[in-house]
Design goal:
Two copies of one chain form a homodimer. Chain A is built from four helices and six strands, in the order ααββαββαββ. Chain A is of the alpha+beta class.
Chain lengths: 160, 160
């Protein structure tokens, strides 16, 4: 990961957009843009034109990709507030497509409670902490087209 | 879906590549290419360069996208052999990322048995038939980086 982000700018939206577009070229090609980032929630957007399928609605692969980027960014930002040496990777995910997505794509990942508190104890017991997350996907008007649950691993790299 | 494909060319690889690149622009942007298509299996490929993440390995979103395209194509091709008026959509999917994917991305979807046989009875009882599928993902040398299970809905459009 590029080091645009220090512990003190963990929720700087412009810096995270710069980072994902630089480090993950697919996000730039698909027009993915982070639109909100707080310690409790992240949101992102992508244009339908680049992410359309043969039925004229959101492509299943793009919907998932927008969701995983949104979740990864939220967990990565939270990890930055704890340690500047964390690596966040997706471990597993489930997505349920409920209805066609007709419009530009929007994703919203939300945290309940304060998960970071348990990361410390997980780091003491295991090599990585594990954080599940729910991500809702749809359009600006309604986030009901798809629902994802994704689990991310937060690996703390010990400094020598 | 564009109508490049008749019932008699259901497994024509070039026609399916043309169809996905035209109908789903994300597949063209990510360099996804179908490499094999038979009644039992579909395989696809994508270059690491366009699908890399900040760790220098395959991006989680791209791995999923390659998998869902591979599975969708296999089910869509099988559907063509039964009816020229089927619409195939992803219903839900689970992906487990087992290890980093270091190289160009490869996906392989395989069918066991003859699922299409049950589609007819499902169509008689429901609006859509449902077909689960397993998709293995990795590199040319080893398909062990990730495993997906995806369920597709096959909607038969009745002609008036």
């Amino acid at each position: 990961m590029s080091d645009h982000l220090s512990q003190h700018s963990a929720f700087n939206l412009a810096a995270w957009n710069q980072l994902i577009h630089q480090d993950i070229p697919a996000t730039l090609m698909l027009g993915i843009r982070l639109t909100q980032l707080t310690p409790h929630c992240a949101a992102a957007w992508a244009p339908l034109a680049q992410n359309i399928n043969g039925h004229g609605t959101g492509f299943a692969g793009s919907i998932y990709t927008l969701g995983v980027v949104t979740g990864w960014t939220l967990i990565s930002a939270l990890a930055k507030t704890i340690s500047s040496n964390c690596q966040v990777v997706a471990g597993e995910a489930h997505i349920h497509y409920r209805q066609p997505l007709s419009g530009n794509l929007v994703a919203r990942a939300e945290l309940n409670g304060a998960p970071c508190a348990s990361w410390h104890s997980q780091w003491q017991s295991y090599r990585a902490a594990k954080q599940p997350l729910t991500i809702m996907l749809g359009t600006q008007d309604s986030l009901t087209a798809a629902e994802m649950t994704a689990t991310f691993y937060i690996k703390k790299e010990e400094l020598n």
